[in-house]
Prior knowledge:
- By secondary structure, the chain is an alpha+beta fold.
- It is elongated, with a radius of gyration of 39 Å.
- The termini are far apart.
- Among the domains are: 84 residues, CATH 2.40.50.140; 79 residues, CATH 2.40.50.140.
- The protein is built from 3 helices and 12 strands, in the order E-E-H-E-E-E-E-E-H-E-E-E-E-E-H.
Amino acid sequence: MKVGDVVDAQILALDREERKMSLGVKQLKEDPWEAIEAKYPVGSKHNAKVRNFTNFGVFVELEEGVDGLIHISDLSWTKKVKHPGEFTQLGADIDVVVLEIDKENRRLSLGHKQLEQNPWDVFETVFTVGSIHEGVITELLDKGAVINLQPYGVEGFATPKHLVKEDGTSSKKDEKLQFKVIEFNKDAKRIIHSHSRIFEDEQKQEARKQRAAAKASKPAAEEPAVVATVEKTTLGDIAGLAALKEKLEKGE
């Protein structure tokens, strides 16, 4: 509204002594929250307009008088959104699904990612522990690196010690490498990777093969000595038995 506008209003309160009158405009229309469960039931899908951002989510308008909040964690299954402004913009249209209704406090909890199937159900079968995938380092942090796992569009993480390459150098941003999955947590939506574990495991496997080969060749080298010992013991036993027999015969 602006000064000079002519509007229809309803009288809400009258204070004769103070010469004050309280008026209302919204009261001339039906309260949309009276039938909110029927018009916006849980699970129903709608299109909304982005009205405001906060650090924890996006406020959207479904219709005049009916606003809702999309929590930042309900924007995307795969992207780790730090601020809603990274995902959408003010005035933009966004599809939502109703997650929860709080009629008493006139609040709607909405979701956007729930419009799609949870891809982590699929990721669980793809990123099994021990599997190797190609990824690009998109961000380097003090605690490690963020890895974009192509072509799935999901991000993983690797700590500094798992970014060391076989030549001893550390991986760099925008570098494309092979990464082995060392941890998968569907509930936390977390995939931990290691590049160094790939060649470390190969080195361990090669060392095990060499030890197995050495162990297999050792008995063959010692076999003549073992046979000789057995033969010597056997001949000694025979000589002893012969002497005992002779003694017994003399005794008779």
